[in-house]
Amino acid sequence: MNDKRFHQAVYVISVAAELAGVHPQTLRIYERKGLLEPARTPGGSRRYSDADVALLQRITELSEAGLNLAGVQRVLELEQTVAALQDELDNVRRTQQRQAAELLASGFRGRGRLMPANRSDTSVTLYRATRGPASVIEPVEPVEPVKPVEPFTPKSE
User: Fold this and answer.
1) Higher pLDDT, 155 or 93
2) What HEC string does the chain produce?
C-alpha cells in the first residue's frame, strides 16, 4: 500500500474500532491519553487511517503483554526514537559508501581503512603507514611520554 493511502484518514470511529478489535470508547480513551491523534472533519468527527489502525493494533498488543497506558506510550516513543536513529544510521552508511566509491573512482587503491582526523583545537591525530604505500593509514594511539631510564650499572661486590 502506498504511503499516501496508508496515512489517509478514511474510517469513522466505529469502523476503525472494529478493524483494530477494540471498543470505540477505547479509541476515545487512547486519544485523551495522547496515544492516538485521529484526523478531524470540518464538522469535528474523527477519521482514522490505516496507519492509525496499525497503531491501535500495536497498542492492543502491548496492553495485552501487560503494559499500562503509560508504559505503552513510553514504548511507542522509544520505537519512534529507534526508527529515527536507524534512518540516521542508514543515511550515514549511504554517505560513507558514496565517499568510498568516490575515492576508488579517483584512483585510491588502499588496503587499509581510512580514518578521519579528529577535528579538535586541542589535540592532533597522528597517522602512520601500516604496510605498502603511504596512502594506507591508521591512527597512532596516543601514548604516555617515555620517562628517561637510568643507565644500568652493575653492583660491585
Assistant:
1) 93
2) CCHHHHCCCCECHHHHHHHHCCCHHHHHHHHHCCCCCCEECCCCCEEECHHHHHHHHHHHHHHHCCCCHHHHHHHHHHHHHHHHHHHHHHHHHHHHHHHHHHHHHCCCCCCCCCCCCCCCCCCCCCEEECCCCCCCEEECCCCCCCCCCCCCCCCCC
Task: Using a cut of 0.70, tell me whether the model's pTM lies above it.
Answer: no
The full length of the chain comes to 157
Q: All domains of the chain, ordered by start, with CATH? A: 3-97 (1.10.1660.10), 110-140 (no CATH)
